[in-house]
Amino acid sequence: MKLPKFLSGNTVLKITSLNAVVITIRLIVSVFIQRLLAITVGEAGIASIGQIRNAMVMLTSTSTLGIFSGVVKYVAEYKEDKPELAKLFSTAAVFFILGSLISALVLFFGSSYFSNYLFKSDDFVYAFKLLAVIVPFIALNRVINGVVSGLSDYKKYAKIELISYLLATVAILVGLYTSNLEGVIVAIAVAPIIQLVVLWFVFGKTLKAYINFKNLKLNLNYKNKLLAFTLMSFASAFLLNYIEINIRTTVTNQINVNEAGYWTAITFISKNYMVFATGLFTLYVIPKFANIHDKHEFKNEVLSIYKTILPIFGLGMLLVYLLRNLIIDIIYPNFVGMEPLFKWQLLGDFIRLCALVLAHQFLAKRLVKSFVITEVISLVLFFVLTKIFIQYYGTEGVVIAHLVRYIIYFIIVVFVVRAYYSNKPSKTV
Fold first, then answer.
1. More confident residue, 323 or 150
2. What span, in angstroms and rounded, lies between the C-alpha atoms of 183 and 196?
3. How many CB atoms are located within 10 Å of the residue 367 CB?
4. pLDDT at 216
5. What are the φ and ψ backbone dihedral angles of 152, each rounded to 5 degrees?
């Protein structure tokens, strides 16, 4: 089926519209699953699921030593240069092996500690030992995803996302009906294996054209380049999820576990609609920014992205706010305590979207210092403001901190990006 004319010339719209189809299907399925989970495991169960999901995101970073965005960047730059790609994948293999081995050992021998830290009991020791076995699959899945994104193969990316999500959902249903919350946690843990199998079936032939697995040698030619992304990943994915786990624990301890469930529920809704942007960032923004070296061209590209996606996201977020009570009734029955959280979360996410478009310049250009400093400031702001606001506003203080954090972060990112281009004059036409 051909795309309409007004879409065919706009890559941003093509990716966004294709993503919209995938995300719409995901949202419909997700509404059913979240409602089922909310009714079956309650607020405390939703909070526990939030803990394991944060731990999984941290693992996607540590298991590859955080090189995902580096793979995206260099595959985008050298996709026509097979010898250079061979060097990249050879170094990526070293990072993959080291990250997987370290993560697996830490998880296996620290399983009791992690179970008690995240769930306040030894009941989930088995889950962390299972994750230790699954770690290599998580890492391989992440690296291959980086190749898909670097090639900007958004059609295959959409197919992989949809099929793997639907299969992972089936696993969650099976887990829920056979072992309740414990089964759900196991299903979440094995989801990367499901995605890896789908990746291989959908993308395996293309992957073989870019990676010669038989001649792959372990070397460190790209060590310094990829280490920069390790540092950036630690400052974003790892620290962010650690802080989210800490905040959920704080809400549980200072208020109650039900309130932690409300916050987890609103962040889950947020992550669902923010997924629209994730595909755009990895498939379009990073590869595009990586090949822009002119201030004027960069400004035009940013404005084009803003004009394309901000009205769409703004309208979508407004609808979410207006329909918030209906959304609660449909997805999270009896979670009425989350209603006041919507306005702050949605406002914060809109500012966050504006900031993230600009901030992906740091990943595209490997601006390690700029990325790490702005990210750490953002995370520290979130952590500190949450601790302050929660004393006065309860759980609502967490989402107010989310909004204030991103307003400050956006201002800082604008100044840093402007400083980067201040000594790079625009090309004269």
1. 323
2. 21
3. 19
4. 66
5. 55, 35
CA distance 106 to 62: 11
The amino acid present at 307, given as its one-letter code, is K
Residues counted in the chain: 429
As a whole number of angstroms, the longest Cα–Cα distance in the chain is 66
Tokens of 104: 């697996």
- pLDDT tens profile 35-76: 999 899 888 889 888 888 888 888 888 888 888 878 888 887
Question: Residue 119 has which token pair?
Answer: 């769930």
Using CA atoms, how far residue 71 sits from 49, 305, 340, in Å, is 30, 23, 40
| C-alpha distance from residue 162 to each of 23, 154, 173, 192, 342 (Å) | 8, 12, 17, 14, 27
Rounded-to-integer distance, Cα 165 and Cα 181, Å: 19
Rounded CA-CA distance 370/281 in Å is 18
- C-alpha 254/C-alpha 387 separation (Å) is 10
- Cβ atoms of 137 and 192 closer than 8 Å: yes
CA distance 18 to 358: 23
Amino acid 339 reads: E
pLDDT(7) > 70: no
Judge whether 82 and 69 are in contact, CB under 8 Å: no
